[in-house]
Amino acid sequence: MATKVFVGRETAVAQVNTVTPANPEENDVFTIKIADQHSNDATITFTCGVVETVKVVVEGLQTAAVAAKAAGLHPWDVVTTTEDDAAVTITADVAGDPFFITATSTGDGAPADTLTEHDTGARVISVIQVIGANGAMGDAVG
Questions:
Q1: Which CATH architecture has domain 3-140?
Q2: How do strand 88-92 and strand 41-47 relate by DSSP bridges?
Q3: Does residue 98 have a cis peptide bond before it, meaning omega lies within 30 degrees of 0?
Q4: Which residues on adjacent β-strands are paired with residue 102?
Q5: Any idea where the domains of the chain sit in the sequence?
Q6: I need a surface site. Which of 18, 20, 84, 136 has the fewest CB within 10 A?
Q7: DSSP element (H, E) containing 131
Q8: Side by side, which strands form the sheet with 41-47?
Q9: Are 103 and 62 in contact (CB under 8 A)?
Q10: pLDDT in tens, 86-115
Q11: Which of 101, 68, 61 is nearest to 85 (CA)?
């Protein structure tokens, strides 16, 4: 009879998420909430002034994320954020440590303001291999 054994050979991958705002208008509030695997969470926000662009919103969110990390606000303290004037990229500091993003925006203008989140990071949790009765390693099954 075959026995399933965790062999832990997969390399951990750092999670990467990208958050992209659109259609900012006066008084719109853009929010990014991050949570870890233990349901600890924290939120950063940026509120638009009179005339705002996507670039200004991205830079405002980036500034808030950097300040949250510097203040030790968990789980912002275990990720690193960067921005490219169009989106904020959030990357886990430790490969294999997952986090969860909720991105929202509020406002009452048209067109509707949006904050879109895209998970671009693969996370391998584990691989299980089958060991045959003769002790030979088989194919991965997990």
A1: Sandwich (2.60)
A2: unpaired
A3: no
A4: 33
A5: 3-140
A6: 136
A7: strand 128-131
A8: 41-47, 29-36, 99-106
A9: no
A10: 999 999 999 888 899 999 888 765 555 566
A11: 61
